[in-house]
Automatic annotation (TrEMBL):
InterPro entries: ClpA/B (IPR001270), P-loop_NTPase (IPR027417), TOR1A_C (IPR049337), Torsin (IPR010448). GO terms for cellular component: endoplasmic reticulum lumen; nuclear envelope. This is Torsin-1A. The keyword Lyase does not apply. Residues 254-308 form the Torsin-1A C-terminal domain. One of its GO terms (biological process) is protein localization to nucleus. Keywords: Membrane, Transmembrane, Transmembrane helix. The chain crosses the membrane at residues 7-25. It comes from Pelobates cultripes. Coiled coil: none annotated. GO terms for molecular function: ATP binding; ATP hydrolysis activity; kinesin binding. Belongs to the ClpA/ClpB family. Torsin subfamily. It holds the Pfam family TOR1A_C. It comes from the Eukaryota.
Length: 531
């Protein structure tokens, strides 16, 4: 052979062999945790430093999970059901569990997360969902017997869908040649939250500590609440009737001290020094129940990251955005193309012409890394929005804190309320203008008007699918997408619930991260006139 042909043939053969064997010999290729390896000490440390006020959840998980993973021949899969009010840590602990079984956590191909309102939204498609879910579980457990399945919003699932996976949770050695006994199933539900809240209040009134609450005090009540909750995922479920759920784990409502712990954790995660006056300010701004005693946080820790963010950045970083934006502008916009051509080598010029910096001179680019100019936003709000000091202050602080955070834990969601003509639409336009130079004409900003885009209640299922697909498709292209929903008072409630998963604390949903997106909801309030 001629040298070129020989080299080409050898290179092609090597490429083929590499493609075939690389996944096997690559030490960084993710592997199924067949041996059930688990660093219990590291997981316990994460629980102590990141999960607050949940002694029952910690104790139960640390007792059950290591023992199950060490068992080479378990008699059935491990099935855990986490119950509690919103913001108490159910999602968070499931993420920690996933991360300690597989380093990639929820991104791992061996960890599978299902969100009821996202993956199973239509009742009329129940039979199709059953088939798809069974196929998915079978296929993935066949590939990795140590697969982890997390079902969120179980209280919004159809009971028949839960019962469809009952065989995989039972004591069968094999089903059609597949052994499911080493898999882990975790269910997350708000059902039973009121039961747990009532128990916590009773203990407090009796002068007992919350740490005195035992699993035996609440577990049976939780199983009954789940079993009898009509329209909930476990309503009259065979999983409960046949005792296939190993543990019903309660998540207690959080007190002021736990909320402060969450805030301190958020401060440390952001790389700041803890200042107790800021911690107290953020914690005290939250809503507590009962109103007269203010014992338990209504939303748990769910709002602590955004609130702590705008407090810090309002006080510390207001002087920074102008400088940062100036540096960015010089580096991105003022570098003459002719200078680059004059001094660049051919290879450097090729790289420059193919770079986002060059491309963004002529086409709009997603501004994922652009420093946010809070000074410009403040100036626009003060010059153009009148008589709305509350809205101006909150929006400025919220946006500044959110955009200054490189790793937000959830998307920013703002709900603007007021009479017609008070500035709701105008303020959303100002936000759009400060995010992208093209403002409302930007391809990264999406406006929905209820009476225009979703006019027919009879087509609500179609609208759900279209809206979810639109959000997913656009955030996949640009994490910093902005979505504005006008006329929220005329929007079908089912359509609002359809986008709930995209506003939550998930790292990823089906491979897409929504945590850098912004959602703005505009609602008109009818003026009330007295006779």
């Amino acid at each position: 052979m001629e040298p070129f042909t020989t080299v080409t043939a050898f290179g092609t053969g090597l490429a083929v062999l590499t493609a075939i064997f690389f996944p096997i010999i690559n030490p960084f290729h993710e592997k199924c945790n067949k041996e059930g390896n688990l660093n219990v000490t590291a997981m316990q440390w994460d629980f102590e430093s990141k999960l607050f006020g949940q002694h029952l959840a910690k104790i139960t998980t640390l007792k059950v999970l290591p023992g199950f993973l060490k068992n080479k021949h378990p008699k059935k899969p491990l099935v855990l059901s986490f119950h509690g009010l919103t913001g108490t840590g159910k999602n968070y602990i499931s993420q920690i569990i996933a991360q300690h079984i597989y380093p990639d956590g929820l991104k791992s191909k061996f960890v599978h997360q299902f969100v009821a309102t996202l993956h199973f939204p239509h009742v009329q498609h129940l039979d199709m969902y059953k088939d798809q879910l069974q196929t998915w579980i079978k296929r993935n457990v066949s590939a990795c017997e140590r697969s982890v399945f997390i079902f969120d919003e179980v209280d919004k699932m159809q009971p028949e869908l839960i019962d469809a996976i009952k065989p995989y949770l039972d004591y069968y050695e094999h089903i059609e040649g597949v052994d499911y006994r080493k898999a882990i199933f975790i269910f997350l539900s708000n059902t039973g939250g009121e039961v747990i809240l009532g128990l916590a209040l009773d203990f407090r009134k009796a002068g007992k500590q919350r740490e005195d609450i035992k699993m035996s005090d609440v577990e049976h009540h939780l199983s009954l609440a789940a079993f009898n909750k009509k329209d909930g995922g476990f309503w009259h479920s065979s999983l409960i009737a046949q005792n296939l759920i190993d543990y019903f784990v309660p998540f207690l409502p959080l007190e002021l001290q736990h909320v402060k712990m969450c805030i301190r954790r958020a401060i440390l995660d952001r790389g700041y020094i803890i200042e107790e006056d800021i911690v107290s300010k953020v914690a005290n701004d939250m809503t507590y129940y009962p109103k007269d005693e203010k014992v338990f946080s209504v939303k748990g820790c769910k709002v602590k990251d955004s609130k702590s963010g705008y407090v810090f950045h309002a006080g510390i970083l207001d002087i920074m955005p102008l400088y940062a934006n100036s540096v960015y502008t010089i580096a991105r916009c003022l570098e003459p193309i002719t200078t680059g051509i004059a001094i660049a080598t051919a290879s450097a010029l090729t790289g420059y012409l193919s770079s986002p910096r060059f491309y963004c001179r002529f086409a709009e680019c997603c501004e994922e890394d652009r420093p946010f100019n809070a000074t410009a936003l403040e100036a626009d709000l003060n010059k153009k929005i009148f008589g709305q000091h509350l809205a101006n202050n909150i929006i400025l602080r919220a946006l500044n804190g959110f955009f200054s955070n490189p790793n937000p834990k959830k998307p920013l969601a703002l709900s603007l309320h007021g009479w017609t003509g008070t500035g709701k639409n105008f303020i959303s336009k100002i936000i759009a203008d400060n995010m992208y130079p093209l403002g409302m004409e930007s391809k990264f900003i999406h406006l929905f008007i209820s009476t225009l885009h979703f006019p027919h209640d009879s087509k609500i299922q179609l609208y759900k699918d279209q809206l979810q697909s639109w959000i997913r498709g656009n955030v996949s292209k640009c994490e910093r997408s902005l979505f504005i929903f006008d006329e929220m008072d005329k929007l079908h409630p089912g359509l609002v619930d359809a986008i709930k998963p995209y506003l939550d604390y998930y790292d990823h949903i089906d491979g897409v991260s929504y945590r850098k997106a912004v959602f703005i909801f505009l609602r008109w309030i009818l003026a009330q006139h007295s006779d």
